[in-house]
Write a structure and sequence with these properties.
Layout: H1 10-32, H2 53-63, H3 66-70
Helix pairs in contact: 1-2
Length: about 80
Amino acid sequence: MKSGLASLGAADWLSLAAAPVFALMALLTFTLGDGHAAILCSEAGRPASFTGMTSMYLLMAAFHLSPWFRLNPAR
């Protein structure tokens, strides 16, 4: 029986990729601004704000952390 990273299939790798990708999207949205979506928000004049899409991407990254916790061999 394989354990750890050797036993991961394609779906497992995809689920592990979700949290880092959402975290990267949050970082890019925070540094570059919300773009066209910021026009609809009340804070459209302020780039690099911690609102809107940035907070949504951070929440999505947090919700997709569970596959990373399942990799812990000490459970």
